[in-house]
C-alpha cells in the first residue's frame, strides 16, 4: 500500500471523512484565493507605485510564493487542524499560478495561435501528471512527493521578471504609454508592426468597466451565464473524476497514469468538441453504472473513458471563458468563473465520498451533470476563428448575431448597440 499522510495518521474507517474534508478545504481555499489575489493585485496596482509596476503579475508572484511556502510547511505538520489550514493556504494559490498566466498569454495571441496556450497547458499538465505518478512509484514517500510542486513554484518566482504585463490592464489603469510600449515590444519580437488604428481603438476603450455592467446587455448576459454554468460543471466533473480514480478497479497509481495518458487530445473548435466531450463522458458514466460486477476491465475502461472525455470538456471550457468575456472585463470575468468553479470543485469530494457507500454513485452523478453541461454548451456560440470582442458593445453585437432562434426576441441588436454607444459617449464626456 502506498504510504500517505492519511494512512500514516490512521484516517480510516470512522475517520475516513477527514481525507475528503481536507480536499474540500483545499478547494475552498482556491475559491477564496481566486478573488483574494485579484483584489490584492488591483489595490496595490493603484496605491503603491513599486508593486503597481507588476500589475497583474503581483498576483502570480504572490501565489507562487504562498503555494511554495505553505506546501513545504505542510510536510512538517503532524496534526489535523494545522495540516488542513496549510492545505487551505496552498489551495488559495492553486489556480492563480496557472490560469492567470494562461489568460495573460491568450490576450496576446492572434486568431490562428489562440489555441496554442491551451494545448501547451494540456500537454504540460498531462506529462507532469505522468511524471508525478512514476516518481511516486519510484520514491514511495509522500513527503518527497509533496515537496515537488512547492519547490517548483518557489523557483518559478525568479522567472516572473520576464512575464509581460497585460496591455488591457495597463489601459484600464490609465497607463497608455506603458501599454503602447508593451504592445510595440510584442510586435517587434513577433517581427511585425502594430497597426495605428488598432492601437487607437485600444487606448480609447471605456475604462474601469465592471463585470456587473453586463446585465445591461441581454445577449452578452445570456452567454456569460451559460459559460459560467459550463465552466462550473467542467470543473466539478473533471476534478471529481480525478478524485474518483481510486474507486476504479486496478492499482491507484496505474489507473492514475492511464487517466493522465488519455488526457492528451487535440482541440478542434470549441462548441462541437465540447458538446461531444460532455455527452461521451455522460455515456461512459451511465454504462459504468450498469456494468455487472466481475468485469473489472470494462469498469476501468468506462471510468477512464469518462475521465478522458471530461478532461477535454474541462480544458475547452478554460478556452471558452476568456473568449466569451470582452477584453474590458475579461480579468473580472475569469475571476468570477474561477470562484464559481472553486465552489463546484469544493463540492466534488463530497460527491466522491458517496463512493464509500455505493461505488457507482459518483460517476452516475457526474454523468447527469455532464448532460446538463452539454445542453448548456449547445446554446453558446462558436468562437473558433472569431476576433475576441474588446468592448461590451462588441460582445453584445456578437451575441445577437450568433443567438439561437429561441433567444432572438424582445430587443434588436441595433437598439442594444445604441444603448452601448450612448453609455460610451457619456463616459467620454465625464473623462473630458
UniProtKB/TrEMBL annotation:
Coiled coil: none
A molecular function GO annotation: transmembrane transporter activity
PROSITE patterns (alphabetical): MFS
One GO CC term, this protein: membrane
Keyword Signal in record: no
Name of the protein in its database record: Major facilitator superfamily (MFS) profile domain-containing protein
Disordered: annotated segments: 400-432
Topology with respect to the bilayer: Multi-pass membrane protein
Parts of the chain that traverse the membrane: 20-37, 58-81, 118-137, 143-163, 224-241, 247-265, 272-291, 297-316, 336-355, 361-380
Name of one Pfam family that matches: Sugar_tr
Family matches, as SUPFAM superfamilies: MFS general substrate transporter
Main location: membrane
Gene3D superfamilies: MFS general substrate transporter like domains (1.20.1250.20)
Organism whose genome encodes this protein: Petrolisthes manimaculis
Keywords in alphabetical order: Membrane, Transmembrane, Transmembrane helix
Residues in Major facilitator superfamily (MFS) profile domain copies: 1-385
Bias type Low complexity, positions: 422-432
PANTHER family reported for this sequence: SOLUTE CARRIER FAMILY 22 MEMBER
Zinc in keyword set: no
Compartments it resides in: Membrane
Amino acid at each position: 500500500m502506498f504510504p500517505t499522510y492519511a494512512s500514516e495518521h490512521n484516517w480510516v474507517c470512522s475517520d475516513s471523512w477527514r481525507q475528503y474534508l481536507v480536499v474540500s478545504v483545499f478547494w475552498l481555499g482556491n475559491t477564496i484565493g481566486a478573488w483574494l489575489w485579484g483584489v490584492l493585485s488591483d489595490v496595490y496596482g493603484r496605491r503603491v507605485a513599486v508593486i503597481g509596476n507588476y500589475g497583474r503579475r503581483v498576483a502570480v508572484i504572490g501565489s507562487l510564493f504562498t503555494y511554495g511556502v505553505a506546501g513545504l510547511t505542510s510536510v512538517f505538520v503532524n496534526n489535523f487542524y494545522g495540516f488542513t489550514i496549510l492545505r487551505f493556504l496552498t489551495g488559495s494559490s492553486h489556480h492563480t499560478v496557472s490560469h492567470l498566466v494562461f489568460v495573460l498569454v491568450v490576450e496576446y495571441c492572434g486568431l490562428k495561435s489562440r489555441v496554442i496556450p491551451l494545448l501547451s497547458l494540456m500537454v504540460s499538465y498531462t506529462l507532469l501528471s505522468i511524471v508525478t505518478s512514476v516518481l511516486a512509484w519510484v520514491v514511495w514517500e509522500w513527503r518527497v512527493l509533496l515537496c515537488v510542486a512547492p519547490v517548483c513554484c518557489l523557483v518559478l518566482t525568479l522567472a516572473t521578471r520576464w512575464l509581460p504585463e497585460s496591455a488591457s490592464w495597463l489601459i484600464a489603469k490609465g497607463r497608455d504609454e506603458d501599454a503602447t510600449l508593451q504592445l510595440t515590444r510584442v510586435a517587434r519580437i513577433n517581427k511585425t508592426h502594430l497597426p495605428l488604428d488598432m492601437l487607437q481603438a485600444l487606448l480609447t476603450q471605456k475604462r474601469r468597466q465592471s463585470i456587473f455592467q453586463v446585465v445591461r446587455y441581454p445577449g452578452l448576459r445570456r452567454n456569460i451565464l451559460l459559460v459560467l454554468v459550463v465552466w462550473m460543471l467542467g470543473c466539478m466533473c473533471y476534478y471529481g473524476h480525478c478524485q474518483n480514480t481510486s474507486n476504479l478497479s486496478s492499482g491507484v497509481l496505474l489507473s492514475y497514469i492511464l487517466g493522465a495518458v488519455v488526457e492528451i487530445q487535440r482541440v478542434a473548435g470549441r462548441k462541437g468538441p465540447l458538446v461531444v466531450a460532455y455527452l461521451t463522458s455522460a455515456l461512459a458514466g451511465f454504462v459504468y453504472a450498469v456494468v455487472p460486477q466481475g468485469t473489472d476491465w470494462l469498469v476501468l475502461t468506462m471510468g477512464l473513458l469518462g475521465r478522458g472525455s471530461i478532461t477535454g470538456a474541462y480544458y475547452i471550457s478554460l478556452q471558452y471563458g476568456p473568449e466569451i468575456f470582452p477584453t474590458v472585463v475579461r480579468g473580472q470575468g475569469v475571476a468570477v468563473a474561477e470562484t464559481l468553479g472553486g465552489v463546484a470543485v469544493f463540492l466534488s469530494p463530497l460527491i466522491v465520498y458517496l463512493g464509500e457507500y455505493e461505488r457507482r454513485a459518483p460517476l452516475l452523478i457526474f454523468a447527469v451533470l455532464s448532460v446538463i453541461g452539454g445542453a448548456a454548451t449547445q446554446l453558446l456560440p462558436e468562437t473558433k476563428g472569431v476576433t475576441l470582442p474588446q468592448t461590451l458593445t462588441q460582445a453584445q453585437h456578437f451575441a445577437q448575431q450568433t443567438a439561437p432562434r429561441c433567444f432572438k426576441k424582445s430587443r434588436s441588436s441595433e437598439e442594444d448597440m445604441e444603448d452601448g454607444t450612448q453609455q460610451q459617449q457619456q463616459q467620454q464626456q465625464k473623462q473630458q
